[in-house]
Amino acid sequence: MITGATGFLGKKLLPALMERGHDVVAVSRSAERARSTLPGLVAAYDWDPRAEPCPADALRVDAVVHLLGESVAGRWTARKREAIAGSRKEGTRHLVEGIAALPVGERPKLILSASAVGYYGDRGEEEITEQTAGGQDFLAEVCSDWEHEVETAGALGLRWVTMRMPLLVDPDGGALEQMLPLAKLGMGGPLGSGRQWWCWVSAHDVVRFVVDAVADPSFEGAYNVCSPVPVRQREFAKTLGRVLGRPAFLPAPAFVLKTVLGAFSIEVLGSKRQIPERLNERGWEFVDRELEAALRRMLG
Q: Residues 168, 232: contact at Cβ < 8 Å?
């Protein structure tokens, strides 16, 4: 079962799971919309994740992939902050409550949930592995609460996995989709100093990770699901410009970003040098390791 199945990542994950022979169901605020936009679904169920536990019929499955959450992009007004935090903490709590209400023999074996590199906060030049302590800012606290709710499923006998994902690189969604219009105009230059580390991952590799983790019970706990080759933001901008055949020199000063984006600017200007240590240790190979090669594959 997938939550957030009608979102960008959910739409990419569904066919990959089906190709592996899985039957897929979904929950959505509008089951009718989910059925009409995702014709491969076996079933879809209505669920308001902040109002009630997840319906039992949707949870009589082998695995739950939890992708639901309000986008963090945009200015963080009080209402936006509440939606970001509530959709993750309360939504995940209600998901686990739905699982807990089932008889033991009918519960899923796995809950695999999205999380974010924001868990670590701004770390400057420090290399971030899964052993690195969580940060103290708003998004770090949101991610910590989010993951805690997932971990409670362990007490119910479920295997649990969380994916700490950075910038999602794909022309059809995520951060790259938002960058492309300005980059194509030659306005995708450095943000602030441009020296901050930007970790990234392709949607293709995230989907591969989910499919593998669903099938392989040795995947358990938190994983940094990110390219093993992070880049500085300035290099990200130059590489994207080079692939597009456009200049990438027009900077966006930090004070401008702080004025326009408010508190969200910390996610643009902050530095996170994330390393997928646990995946490296198990020899899991990323298809998209190098940024330029990945962008040429996607945009060429």
A: no
> How many distinct structural domains can be found in the chain?
1
Are 224 and 128 a contacting pair, CB within 8 Å? yes
Give how far Cα 270 sits from Cα of 77, 82, 147, 194, 254, Å: 19, 22, 22, 10, 11
In a domain, 292, yes or no: no
pLDDT at 135: 96
Tokens for 198?
Answer: 């930007």
Q: Which residues of the chain have pLDDT under 50?
A: none
pLDDT at 257: 59
Per-residue DSSP letter, 169: E
CA distance 285 to 208: 10
Residue 6 lies in a domain: yes
Would you give the DSSP letter of residue 254? H
Q: Please write the tens of the pLDDT for every residue from 92-140.
A: 999 999 999 999 999 999 999 999 999 999 999 999 999 999 999 999 9
CATH number of the domain within which 50 lies:
3.40.50.720
CB-based contacts of 60, cutoff 8 Å, min separation 6: 102, 106
Stated as kind and residue range, the H or E segment containing 242 is helix 233-244
Q: Is position 240 within any domain? A: no
Residue ranges making up the domain that contains 25:
2-168+199-226+274-287
Quote the strand ranges of 145-216, DSSP E: 159-165, 167-170, 173, 197-198, 200-202
Judging by DSSP bridges, how do beta strands 231-232 and 197-198 pair with one another?
antiparallel
Question: What pLDDT does 178 receive?
Answer: 80
pTM over 0.85: yes
Backbone φ and ψ of 127, nearest 5°: -75, 130
